[in-house]
Amino acid sequence: MAHARKQIRDAISTVLTGLTTTGSNVFLSRLHVVDQGPFPCLLLYALKDDALRVSLGSNREQERKLELQVHAVVSATSTLDDGLDQICLEVEKALAVDPTLGGLTADLVLNNTLAGLNITATNPVGEAVMDFTATYFVRETDPGVLV
After folding, report:
1. Is the pLDDT of residue 7 over 70?
2. What is the pTM of this model?
């Protein structure tokens, strides 16, 4: 069984694949070269996974708070703000349909969104970074088993 983080990332990727604006351009990698396209696209990855033991004994459980980022990326044109807002709207609506991701998480919430222009890229791009927190529970002895 894969780590719960991977299961959650994969589930979010599935939900976000096929959105009207970004289509199948969803990448589960920090290494995707965003200034080369395809545009528009989404990048998804986990940043931090805090753990708190919530039970004792032989089957200890942990409550985890997984910090995830969804990066929306568009070509730097005069309509980049509108494009980023549209993608954020689609992402937020799609993930709000089932914040448990089919039972993988107890909750998934949007914390904030930060938009900007990446002019250091070969081809400048607009980016909106959406920070989410997924709360989930696992067995301490096997973080691939969700409880």
Report:
1. yes
2. 0.93
